[in-house]
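Dear colleagues,

For the upcoming journal club I promised to circulate an example of a predicted protein-ligand complex. I picked one with iron/sulfur cluster because it came up in last month's discussion. The inputs are reproduced below in full, followed by the predicted structure.
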Amino acid sequence: MKKKNAAPAAGNGKDLDMKIFSGLERLSQALRVLLWEVTKKKNLSPIQTQFMLFLANAREDRRRVGALAEEFNLTPATVSGAVKTLIRKKLITLKSAPHDKRNKIIALTRSGKSLAGQVSAWRSVLLDNLAGFPSGTKENVMLFLMRLIESMQKQGIIRVKGMCVLCDNFHANGRSDPRKQYYCALSNSYFGVRELKMNCPNSIVKRPKPNTVSL
Ligand code: SF4
């Protein structure tokens, strides 16, 4: 006889992989739609919006056409086109680098900074939801995402910069204390899971294979 309220049979590994894939896909679609709605309101294209968000937080040496092209995996010509549009909209300006007058540094104008602040609010939709989950769950999810990215990077499918687990300075076997289980050779310091970085400006990553997608 069939049991009432029986738990659904556990799926095989491939089912689980497919469910994770669908979850990531839906989340990424939802974030794209949210970003698109914000950019429409501000009369920017998605790539112009991403440039504004990047420029608002990037170090001076990364605020150049070449660095943007590298960061977003675009040609310098495509970046120059978007940069000219943002200059026309009075959201950014170009200034000469102190020791290299031909290599211009991009800076947000006052209205550019204000707009970048408004646009970055779209992230709060997800961040506010994440805030309600237990720390242990979030640490496991963060580690899982880092390892997934690492695995794709090792296969030469993508190239991500700034993550400890991909950095040549990173050593996973630190000390037995979980708060010191990792080691950074650059800063000569030990740290735990929560201090793992996603966007470290000092990260060193070996050169990717050709056709690798930068993220
Ligand atoms: S803190 Fe920065 S330099 Fe150190 S291991 Fe992490 S990514 Fe690399």
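Two points we might discuss: DSSP finds seven helices and seven strands in the chain. Residues 15 and 83 are 44 Å apart (CA to CA).

See you all on Thursday,
B. R.
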